From TrEMBL:
Top-level taxon: Bacteria
Alphabetically ordered keywords of this record: DNA-binding, Transcription, Transcription regulation
Protein name: Helix-turn-helix transcriptional regulator
SUPFAM superfamilies: Homeodomain-like
InterPro entries: Homeodomain-like_sf, HTH_AraC, HTH_AraC-typ_CS, Tscrpt_reg_AraC-type_HTH
All residue ranges annotated as the HTH araC/xylS-type domain in the record: 142-240
Any Pfam family the entry gives: HTH_18
Length: 245
């Protein structure tokens, strides 16, 4: 698990509000809690405008869209001038839902500043326990993770990634393990399994369709990998989610 991903995972585990880390070119570095719907409503242009118009040295701004869809933008240049911004949200501040925001986590407006403090406290805490050279992720690994996030449905191999990055395969594998704590294959399969959980819980797709949708080329292998990471078969996971409704 990368340093940055471990931060946003701890945050998400605490408050269940989606969060992502983006660079200064507004590209995703890592994210958690996002769905296809959240990706569609992600207000990239609003975020760019707010950052451009913000005169504070350290940006900490609140963005509220129609239908009570809210985001917080936090600049982390104080800790690492080479990364970018935490984007917290979407979350809603009104406990009354509508058809648009019914799947969005509710957090009272008074909590919004605490969300910012929480993510920065987590960052500071983890920073204290990291060796300084390891707190800045290799650009090769950042690009590889970004590629997985955007192309997990496609056929991906270490060889193809190394070719795209123009990097030696053995060196890439050692870097990936150093910065994420896992092999490339483990990281890719885990990400695909997490994506498949969303489809199992929220769609009526068959297991074969789910497998293909997240990049596995056959249902049997998908089921084996899914059980390896969750101790459940895809069918068992889907049944357990239905019982919670």
């Amino acid at each position: 698990m990368s340093f940055e991903y471990s931060i946003i995972k701890d945050f998400y585990d605490c408050c269940s509000v989606p969060i992502k880390l983006i660079n200064y070119e507004f590209e995703d570095l890592c994210k958690i809690g996002y769905t296809d719907f959240f990706d569609r409503i992600y207000p990239l242009e609003d975020i760019k405008i707010n950052i451009k118009n913000c005169k504070d040295e350290l940006i900490n701004t609140h963005i509220q869209l129609k239908n009570d869809i809210n985001y917080k933008v936090i600049d982390i240049c104080k800790y690492n001038k080479k990364i970018g911004y935490f984007i917290i949200g979407p979350f809603r501040t009104n406990h009354i839902t509508n058809l648009i925001n019914k799947d969005i986590t509710y957090k009272p407006l008074t909590c919004s500043n605490y969300l910012c403090n929480l993510i920065l406290n987590i960052y500071e805490d983890k920073l204290k326990n990291q060796d300084a050279p390891n707190t800045i992720m290799s650009p090769y690994i950042r690009k590889a993770i970004g590629y997985i996030h955007h192309h997990y449905q496609d056929e991906i191999s270490i060889d193809s990634i190394c070719e795209k990055l123009d990097i030696n395969k053995c060196y890439f594998c050692s870097l990936f393990k150093k910065y994420t704590g896992h092999t490339f294959s483990y990281f890719l399969n885990n990400f695909r399994v997490e994506k498949s959980k969303e489809l199992l819980a929220k769609t009526d797709l068959s297991l074969l369709e789910v497998a293909f949708s997240v990049g596995f080329n056959n249902q049997t292998y998908y089921s084996i990998i899914f059980k390896k990471f969750t101790n459940q078969t895809p069918s068992q996971y889907r049944s357990s989610m239905l019982l919670k409704e």
